[in-house]
Every structure is written in C-alpha cells, then in structure tokens.
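sorry for the late reply, my laptop died twice this morning and i had to redo everyting from scratch. anyway the thing you sent over, i finally got around to it. pasting the sequence first so we're on the same page, its 444 residues, then the predicted structure underneath. double check i copied it right bc i was rushing
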Amino acid sequence: MDGLLLSEILGVPLRGKNAEVKGFCINSKKVKEGDVFVALRGKRADGHDFIGEAFERGAVGVISEREVSPPKGRFALVVPSSLGALREIASFKRRRFSGIVIGVAGSAGKTTTKELIYHLLSSVGEAYRSPGNLNSQIGLPLAVANAPLGARFWVLEHGASARGEIRNLISITKPHVRLITKIGEEHLEGFGSLEGVVLGNGEMFCSLGSMERAVIPADTLRYYSFIPKDLRITFGDGGDVRAEDFSVSGDGVRIRFEGREFFVGIPSVGMVENVLASFALLKALGYKPEGFLDVLKGFKPQEGRMQVIKFKNFTLINDAYNANPPSVRNAVMSLKAMGGKRIVILGDMLELGSRSGELHEEVGRLLSGADLSFAFFVGNEMRRAFEVYDGRKVWARDVGELSRLVREYKQELRNGVILIKGSRAVGLEEIIRILGGIDNELSR
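ok and here's the structure:
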C-alpha cells in the first residue's frame, strides 16, 4: 500500500510525495518509520496537535481533518473525518483479505478466548489477532488496517459499551465465524440493562450468511434462538460442545472432553468455557480438538488475567486487568476451587450505572460462601460488598490507603493464595508491586 492507493480509497488528493506505507498509528509517541499517522480528536487530546511530532518520528504521511503542509518527501491526506478514513482503510483491507475472519465478543473472557483461538490456530497456519485490547470503535479498525493480508486467519475482538457499536464493527470485519463468550452485567451505564447487553452482543449475528457460523454459550440460546440451527454451535453445559468433567487446582485446569484429558495452565473456572468455546470454533472450521491437545498445554495467560505469580510466602493470582460481575464470579469460584488459605483484594467494578450498589452487594454475599481467610476491599462502590461480607475484612477508600492496610495485615497473607481483581481505573497494579516487597519482609 502507498499514498496514492490511500488517496484513491479515501477519495481525496495526495498532498506531497508518494511513499510506501508500512502501517497506521494513532499515537504520535508510538509512530515507527514508514507509518501513516491518523490524527484523531479525543476527549483528552487532539491528535492534530501532534502531527509535527509524528513526522519527526518517521511518519511517511498523515491523515488529517486540518490543512497540513507535509515535510519534503512526505505526504498528507486531508479528509472530512479521520475516524471515517480509518474505517474506510480497514474496510478496504477486509475486502482484500482472502483468509478466514473470526470475530469474538461477550461480557467476560473474550480477550482470553481471542488469545487462545489465536494460539491454537497458529499451529496450523499463519494467524493474526487484534493486539491487546484493540476492540473499540477506534481500536478494532486500527487493528484491521494493520492486519497482514498474507495470514490464513484473523482473530478479532469486538468490544462495546452500548447498543449499535458491535453492529458498526461487524460492518467492517464481516467475520466468517462469530463467537460470543459469557454474557453478563457489563457497561450498564451504556447498555442500560442486562437485556441491553444481550441485544448489543447479539449484533454479532446481524446479516449472518448461509456460509457463516455462530458459536454461542448454550445458556444464551434462549436469547439467540433466531440463529438457524444449522448455522450455530453451542458450548457449555447442555451444549453441542461440553466437558464431561473438569477440575481446578493451583497449577491450572484439567478438562475431560470426548474421552481425552486436556490441560491448560491457568487456574480459572472461566477457562473451562473459554476452552470449550475454542473447541466449538475449531469444529466450526472443520478441525478436531484432539489434534490440539499438546498445543493447548503451551497456552499462557496475558498479564493481569488469572496470571499466577508464586512468591516465597504466598501465591498471587493477578486478575487485576479489569472487572465486571461475571468475571468476578468466575475469579471467586476459581479461588474457592483451589482449597487452602484464601485471600481476596477486590476493587470497584465500574460503569454499572444504577445497579452498581446491588451488584457489589452480590459480590459480598458470594464471598461469604467462599470460605476466605481474609478480604481486602477498596473503593466507594466495593464498600457495599464490604458491608455485606460476613468474614474477617478491611476496607480502604483508595489504593493509597489500601497499600497501608496490606502492610499492616501482612501476616494474614502468609502461606495464602491471594486473588487481586478490580476495574482498570482502580489502579491495583501498585498493590502487586507492594506485595513483592511484603514477601521480602516476611522472609526475614
């Protein structure tokens, strides 16, 4: 791809000198030599203010809503909407891609499932997945714009915080196989209700073609019964793809499936559904899961997603990347299944709207039945869980106060398995750093 082709795609004249394009970037600080910088207007900053920096860092061109005079040997494309231009470029790439596109959505487990599918399919052909959490109205078009056309598979995560957003994304990605993970309360400020979450994620199946397939949890069939039976595969209890048995330990999860034992080294009850979802997808593509038995063993969690960190005096399960009610339920159930001395450090679940109070209270009740040794709570919302929980506990207003309390109660951590989880904005990563120091103190 070069500047002239971009000019043709976007229907605007090329200003400056044509050049080969290696990729697209929306963060001027991450621009690499050969990139095109797409200047977007954000809530906190306007990318147009960083066009000069992007050129200095090696951008060969920019896409801008403002008039731009590019440096010698570079180009500019002035468009009515930079985000609209990014979507057009992504749509063009998708039309040219001749491989298989897999779309993943859902309330809990979608990033891990995306990564797992990518891991499995990489063993049979070149695969690409949307990097990190690039699943939004900006992130996913950027991921597609940068996707390699020579790959055999694209595995793309679709995120949403309101109805209509997934519909917008699939109009670009047009997945051949469309998978939904666990559905539950998430982004209720945008979706409005659980029904809104169901309908919003159900947009994955808009315009499902006769040669395309849907993969859904069996317990969501009551919501998505409109999907023709011959186009869908269900997974989980009562589904087409289900576990005969499973067990969770500190080492990971063992799953009995079709007479064979599969193992994945992530100690999470939620991983059972993630694995079954991946198996259902493999079947939709014509593969037998048994052929991936050894490949599955090599799958590693991403940082902050049920990541086991073994210290000298305790074991930490770092699930602090984000939190909503279904993912917290999964994490607590996983901790309960491990046995031994169990401790939780829980931060607020954000963006739950008017139901935030009751959903945090539900967490407190869930913890009361988890046989914990001790519980740390942090945040105004998580205070509701603290008040309901009937075990040994402390509450902190913020991470700063929590840091002091964790140090004060450090003896409670000795020989324990500690689950740490909360919404990204809570900032629990600081507590993980502090726990490393506490481990050293307990070893003295």
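The longest strand covers residues 100-105.
thats about all i looked at so far, will dig more tmrw
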